[in-house]
Design goal:
The chain is mostly helical.
Amino acid sequence: MGLEKTIQKKRKIVYLELLRIIACFCVIINHTNSGIFLSRTPDSKIWWVSLTYFFVSKTAVPIFLMISGVLLLGHVDTYRKWSSRMLHIFLDILIFSFFYYVWSMYTADRSVNLIEYLKLIWQRNVTNAYWYLYLYLGILLMLPLFQRLSVNMGKREYELLILVCAVFMGTMPIVIHYMPGAAFSSYFCDPFFSEFVGIFFLGYYIHNYVPVKKEYALAAVLVFGMDILLQVLLTYREYQVDPQQYLFFDERTFITVVTAAATLFYLGRCMEAVLISEWFWKVVGFFGGCSFGIYLLSDFFLDSYYGIYGNLSERMNPMIAVFFYECLIFLTGAAVTAVLKKIPYIKKLL
């Protein structure tokens, strides 16, 4: 029985770490791939492949939020632990944003101005990917309330919260886009939790209330595929209306994106029911443990390797070139993160 519990615990860790890897790689895809379909038209097969790849990558943020929901909800931390979490993310923003700021000043041949930097990080994210750190910091600020709410909620309360967010903030914007007459007073939604909070609670709900079943897993695969296809086809329709502005569905809180993310999250959870070798645990554990560092460094390597990608895309299929580019960013980020995690104070930030 003890061995069985240990194996089950390991599988749960693998499932979350595996999802971290997927979400982290999807972040890189989201920041590297879009130029391919944006520079082409639907007459090209590559436009369709790249656009499909794009919508798969949009699952990144919802998956990260759902992972956080699994780990942070359902219990109440001490205020000391809560403040430690807050400090961790605050220091990540402060230190790693400074790295990007110094790098941008160096490449622009400008001098570093500390006051300018502090104003900058107060007002906005210094680099593209770091908007999520501000979102996560806001969630952590509210975490003591969210945790106390979660431990007193039952299954029906979770379903109500998720349903309200899914219908009024995830689905109605799409309905209104096609049927403007369906618009309702914006004041109605003001008391609701944000879409991101709904996704945060959705992860905990899937982990604790949705059983792992083969038929559910097969349904999840089917729904995921149909959902991605739907987003691609609807975007093609948007293109026909306005070829210059057709990415209406590029919205991570829309029901289309969240559905794809939720099914992918559930399929990750189904890894619990799969016999996994010790080697697989080690590999997933290593890369999953590096995923936050990879995310923090990804924009730097994205810029650093862009020339390599440009040369590759001239010599081969652009989808193959961009995949190689993404793998290079991911693997270099993992290697650097693994080294940084050996430094006593730095490893606490990663």
